[in-house]
Backbone:
């Protein structure tokens, strides 16, 4: 735990030793500030909409945050220091993940200024806003884990950023693509109908594919929170999502040290 | 202190380390010598737990590096070939981080860091960013980093590469100093360095151990005879003839003739005989003044070439 803290402190401070931490925060604040001020100008403040708007920029902001997490250490040779220290690789992964997550939370807390302004001027801040924040933070935490994982894959920061960028875009497009893939699936089944299925069954199979893809999509998971409905299952989903990617990150690192290739 | 048994490491089909075994005693400075690409760095990376071995075991202070890495790594301070430094930190910040990472108790940290910085002489750059330091200072910060937590074993991989001659001497002296309190494994491809610093030498070539001995023992082993070089003023032919008559000398040859009337002669005698006195009296009787007489111990360089060369021949055969 102490070692995780040591790594956490260093990694978090490192964001602000280089310009990257400031740049990412600036992008985040610019995006949210733009939305908020246009709301103010049109006298219609929509905090839930603001978070959804920022969320659509996750695929830029989060890869920029996470691309350096492991790849920089690997490139500079500083990973030797970490892996030959008494810290276990899980402690290292946790420390680095928490540092990136802390930066994300710091940026998110910046938007609280907008909430305060809204409250001060008697704007609408209801349970939906709280729900939107909860969903926003969980989704962000999941994407940060994804970004940390891609950073462990390569020693090139740009490639790490591009991989997580592409994966996040695919995930955000999954909404649109899922119904398309569902109909593709039913057409395929129709063409090679070896089990003699009826049309109704084929349609059902297609929509099952769509449903499964939607189930896997993190960005649709927060829809109910925005309505002010607090369910447990999305939280479990996001916690598992984070756990799986951190586990995979740990495996990737261990694998590289153990591989004989 | 450290025991390496039957270490094997393959990178794909390439065998980088081939059944290497040796041990290091407590308080010893061991030189790990080999040409580039001999498997030194790989061995050190395995020894410190950075890489895994294909087979074989490493015991550090009785702890297996794979079974019990936490305890084993606590005993080791490692300076890799490229010092692992966070360039964006100041020296103090960096050492503070390493101390936290290695779990040095808070109350010890400040005192220990001050001691280390004094020992490796980086106190005057403590507040500077590492990226602004010269190569020599970075190397010292790298050594300081290895010293944090006061590990019993220091593993230094080519610590003097890329330094200027003055810095090399300073780092060597520092290593000698460290050897008084730590067990040190020092890898190098520079022979005089190992000769100057180490008590025992392991020579590795193409992943295999070619020889293990003290520097002096190696030179003894390598020469069944001892050789002398003489500079004598007088007629060269006659001098050589007279020398050949001295019992114990089985070879005397004119090496070169330098200046006027001074011949440089190489003499080989039977092992464990000392012919220097006889040579002196013989020359004195003939009134040929000896200008210079020195024994030609083989340098580690010669031994090294001999050892690695022999190995290659053996492999071909």
Residues:
């Amino acid at each position: 735990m102490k070692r995780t803290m040591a790594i956490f402190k260093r990694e978090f401070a490192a964001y602000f030793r280089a310009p990257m931490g400031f740049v990412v925060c600036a992008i985040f604040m610019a995006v949210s500030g733009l939305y908020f001020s246009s709301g103010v100008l049109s006298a219609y403040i929509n905090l839930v909409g603001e978070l959804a708007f920022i969320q659509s920029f996750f695929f830029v902001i989060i890869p920029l945050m996470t691309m350096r997490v492991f790849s920089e250490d690997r490139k500079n040779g500083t990973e030797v220091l970490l892996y030959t220290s008494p810290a276990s690789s899980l402690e290292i992964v946790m420390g680095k993940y928490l540092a990136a997550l802390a930066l994300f939370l710091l940026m998110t807390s910046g938007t609280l200024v907008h909430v305060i302004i809204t409250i001060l001027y008697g704007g609408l801040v209801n349970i939906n806003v709280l729900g939107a924040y909860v969903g926003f933070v969980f989704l962000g935490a999941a994407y940060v884990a994804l970004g940390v994982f891609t950073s462990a894959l390569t020693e090139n920061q740009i490639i790490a950023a591009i991989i997580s960028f592409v994966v996040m875009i695919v995930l955000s497009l999954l909404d649109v693509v899922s119904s398309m893939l569902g109909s593709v699936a039913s057409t395929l089944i129709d063409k090679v109908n070896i089990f003699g299925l009826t049309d109704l069954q084929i349609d059902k199979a297609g929509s099952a594919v769509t449903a499964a893809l939607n189930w896997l999509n993190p960005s649709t998971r927060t829809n109910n929170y925005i309505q002010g409905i607090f369910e447990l299952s999305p939280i479990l989903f996001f916690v598992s999502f984070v756990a799986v990617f951190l586990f995979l990150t740990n495996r990737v690192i261990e694998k590289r040290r153990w591989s004989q290739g | 202190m450290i025991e390496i048994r039957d270490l094997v490491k393959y990178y794909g089909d390439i065998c980088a380390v081939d059944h290497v075994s040796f041990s290091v005693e407590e308080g010893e400075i061991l030189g790990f010598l080999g040409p580039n690409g001999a498997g030194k760095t790989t061995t050190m990376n395995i020894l410190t737990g950075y890489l895994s071995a294909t087979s074989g075991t490493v015991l550090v202070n009785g702890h297996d590096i794979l079974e019990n890495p936490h305890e084993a790594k606590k005993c080791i301070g490692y300076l890799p070939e490229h010092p692992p430094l966070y360039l964006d930190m100041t020296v103090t910040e960096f050492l503070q981080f390493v101390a936290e990472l290695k779990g040095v108790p808070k109350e010890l940290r400040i005192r220990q860091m001050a001691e280390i910085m004094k020992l490796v002489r980086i106190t005057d750059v403590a507040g500077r960013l590492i990226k602004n330091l010269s190569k020599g200072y970075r190397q010292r910060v790298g050594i300081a980093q290895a010293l944090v937590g006061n590990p019993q074993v220091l593993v230094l991989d080519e610590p003097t590469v890329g330094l200027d001659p003055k810095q090399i001497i300073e780092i060597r002296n520092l290593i000698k100093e460290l050897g008084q309190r730590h067990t040190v494994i020092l890898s190098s491809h520079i022979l005089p360095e190992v000769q100057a610093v180490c008590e025992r030498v392991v020579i590795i070539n193409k992943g295999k151990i070619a020889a293990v001995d003290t520097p002096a023992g190696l030179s003894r082993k390598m020469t069944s005879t001892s050789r002398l070089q003489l500079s004598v003023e007088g007629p060269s032919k006659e001098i050589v003839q007279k020398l050949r008559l001295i019992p114990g000398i089985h070879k005397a040859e004119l090496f070169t003739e330098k200046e006027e009337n001074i011949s440089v002669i190489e003499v080989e005698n039977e092992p464990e005989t000392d012919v220097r006195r006889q040579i002196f009296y013989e020359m004195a009787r003939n009134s040929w003044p000896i200008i210079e007489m020195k024994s030609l111990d083989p340098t580690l360089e010669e031994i090294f070439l001999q050892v690695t060369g022999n190995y290659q021949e053996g492999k071909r055969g």
